[in-house]
Write a structure and sequence with these properties.
Two copies of one chain form a homodimer. Chain A is of the alpha+beta class and 154 residues long. Chain A is built from four helices and nine strands; from the N terminus they run E-H-H-E-E-E-E-E-E-E-E-H-H. Chain A has a single domain, classed as START domain (Alpha-D-Glucose-1,6-Bisphosphate, Chain A, domain 4), CATH 3.30.530. Chains A, B: This is Polyketide cyclase.
Chain lengths: 154, 154
C-alpha cells in the first residue's frame, strides 16, 4: 500500500519563517513549549536527528496523567522534513503495536510564512479511525497554533 | 518491549571469511544464488545500503509460485551489520501488516571463519509463532548452508 488512504493530514500556512519552525520541532527546549495542547505539557523530550535516533516525549495532564511516547527517527532533511515512528524503539527493536509514522514537511510560502504539513501515516484503516476519534485534527491543530505563536517570537 | 522474546534466531559459525559473507548479502547478483532454499530461486532483488533504501526480493517456486518481498533498509554497518524491515515501503510509508525486522550480524571467528547471526524480530508472539511454523529454522538454515558454499568460492 503506497497510497495515502490511511493518512491523517494537517496542512496550514504558518505566519513564521521556516527556520524558526524547524527549530521549534528539533530543539527539545522549544518543542516542550508548544507540542501539547494546554493544559497538558511536555516534561521531557529527546529528538535525535539521524535515522535510528531516539524520539521521545513525556506528556503530562492536569490530573496527573503521564503519557510517554518512545520511537525512532526515520529520516531528516534539515529545515525541510522529519519522519519518525513508534513502530520501533532505539536499536530498531519492534515496539508494542505500531501506531503510526509521522512526517513534518516545511516549505517557504513567501513573506516570512511557511507551508506546514503534519501527516500521521497508519498501517490500517482501523488505527487511522482510532487516531481520528482521539482528536487528531483538533489536537494537532491546537499544537500548530501554539507552534506558530512560539516560532514568531524567535 | 525491548527484550528479545519475540525474536527467532539462527546462529552459526560459517567456514568463510566475513568479507565474503558480506558480499553475498549485499551484492544482488550473489544474493540471488543462495537466498532461497532450492528449488526455489530469486529472479530479482535490490539491496540499497542506506537507511530508507529499498530492500526487495522476488522468490519463485517450482510450481510457478511468485512471492515478492518489499521493504526498507534500517541500518548498515559495512562488513558487520544489516537491519531491514517489511513494515515500511520506500519513502517510509507504512506497508501492509508489519511482519518483521531482520538483522544480520557478522564477526570474525578466526581461521577465516565467521560468527553469523540472522535474527527475525517480530511485533507479537503470534507473528513469531507463525514465522516459526512457516519453517524459519529449516529455511534460514538451508539458506545459511547455501550462503557458506557460495562465500567459500569467492
Amino acid at each position: 500500500m503506497s497510497d495515502a488512504t490511511n493518512d491523517l493530514i494537517l496542512k496550514r500556512i504558518l505566519d513564521a519563517p521556516r527556520a524558526a519552525i524547524w527549530r521549534c520541532w528539533t530543539e527539545p527546549e522549544l518543542l516542550r513549549q508548544w507540542f501539547c495542547p494546554k493544559p497538558w505539557y511536555v516534561s521531557d523530550s529527546r529528538m535525535e536527528l539521524w535515522p535510528g535516533g531516539e524520539v521521545m516525549t513525556v506528556m503530562n495532564g492536569p490530573d496527573g496523567e503521564r503519557v510517554e511516547n518512545l520511537g525512532v527517527m526515520l529520516e531528516v532533511v534539515p529545515g525541510e522534513r522529519l519522519i519518525f515512528t513508534d513502530a520501533f524503539e532505539p536499536g530498531w527493536r519492534p515496539a508494542g503495536r505500531p501506531f503510526m509514522a509521522a512526517s513534518v514537511t516545511l516549505a517557504d510560502a513567501g513573506d516570512g510564512q511557511t507551508h506546514y504539513e503534519a501527516r500521521a501515516m497508519h498501517w490500517t484503516p482501523e488505527v487511522k479511525a482510532e487516531h481520528e476519534a482521539m482528536g487528531f485534527h483538533v489536537g494537532w491543530g491546537i499544537a500548530a497554533d501554539q507552534l506558530e505563536v512560539l516560532a514568531r517570537k524567535l
